Amino acid sequence: MKDYSKVKTFDELIELEHGKIGSESRNKYEENAQMFIISEMLKEARKEANLTQEQLAEKAGTKKSYISKLENGKGNIQLSTLIRIFEQGLNKRIGLTFL
User: Fold this and answer.
1) Closest CA to 82 of 97, 98, 94
2) DSSP designation for 71
3) pLDDT tens figures, 48-75
4) Rounded to an integer, what distance in angstroms lies between the CA atom of residue 29 and that of residue 49?
5) Can you say how many angstroms the Cα of residue 36 is from the centroid of all Cα atoms in its chain?
6) In this predicted model, what pLDDT tens digit does every residue of 14-43 receive, in sequence order?
7) Phi, psi torsion values for 61, nearest 5 degrees
8) CA distance 34 to 49
9) How many separate domains does the chain show?
10) 32 vs 98 pLDDT, higher one
11) Which domain, by its residues, includes 26?
C-alpha cells in the first residue's frame, strides 16, 4: 500500500505512482500520456471537420482501421504520418515543442 499522506503536488503523485523521471516505469507512463493527448486531439479535430474515420483516412492516404487505432490510443505513429493526417486530412498545421 502506498503512502499518499505526504503527497502535496501532482508531480509528487506522479512520482509516487510511476517513479522518478527517467525510470522505465515513468517513461512508459509519459509515452502513454502523450499518445492519449494525441488521440484526443485527432478525434476532436476530425469531429470538428465533420469527417468520418473513413473519410479522414481517404484524405490522408491511410486506412480507417489505422485512424481508429490512433483515436483509441492503441497504435504507434510516425511523425510524418501524423503530419500527413493533420495537414492533408484535416487542413491543420502541427507545431512541435521540445522541453
Assistant:
1) 94
2) H
3) 999 999 999 999 999 999 999 999 998 7
4) 30
5) 4
6) 999 999 999 999 999 999 999 999 999 999
7) 75, 40
8) 23
9) 1
10) 32
11) 10-90
